[in-house]
Amino acid sequence: MGFGLLALFGCKTPELNREAMVPEAVQATSAEMPTYREIVSRYNDRLVGLDLVSCRTDVEAVWRDERGKVRRESGDGRLIVRRPLDTAVTVEAFGQMVMWAGSNDRGYWFFTDLHRGGEVVHGRFGGAGAASLPMPVSPELIPVLLGWMPLPEDISGADEPAEAYQGYALIEPAGLRLRMLLDVETAAPVRVDLLDAAGVSAVVCRLEGRQDIERPMRDDLILEGGILVEPNVTRDGSMGKLIPAAELPDAPLVMPTKVTIYPVHDESRLTLELKRVRLEDTKVKGRLFDLDTLITSLKPDRVIDLDAR
Question: Residue range 56-73: average pLDDT?
Fold first, then answer.
């Protein structure tokens, strides 16, 4: 199961060098590597109770606008993910909302300069405008990069040992254009790459630090017989994994403390310091993921439909 280490670690970016994006080696040998099926099964089991995550953050966002100017915003913010496709990333400065990026099951949006009028660019999935979105990565991909979405366990070669790189398990789930380095002990990702059609890294996410979050167990997810059903988290509408109650993870959920996301071929970047992480936050409402409601609330001066260009 060779996945091309040069393709994974041979990328360059103007602000982040290759070495900065490779995790520090840990003590493990290829003989100690679990199989792909074992490590991915443990990776997926981590996701029980992770349907809704709300974090306070320190945010820095760098991107190039439509006039070619490099823009930078930083401040306090929020990261909210409601699987599978509802996301919100915000930046506030001096008590004012400055930036808001997000998505739902229909499309994505990016509000900027909200403290001085501002604008929003938006598009729909499958539309013509996705390549024009001035962000390091489209918002609906953030849960994938953070390791918060399930992976297929049954692929060709799944019962062979995972490839080892500096003590981590290196995997490439079939059909997802995704390459990951997983911590062998916790099955948590330390680096996630989105791949282009040639299998080369296009977007890199580096996950650093560790914080252990207690996971809530919602009563409405427990069925008769003590079986917990993961909610629908797949685009094709298939049911999630059935997990016997006796096998539910009782360990805290391992979260990073810092996340850095950048495309390989330009200078844009999104850096999030995750603080005060909450699971199943009852204050999170559906209006946070509704574009029309956000336009009414945030009142940008310009509304730009990327698909209409």
Answer: 87
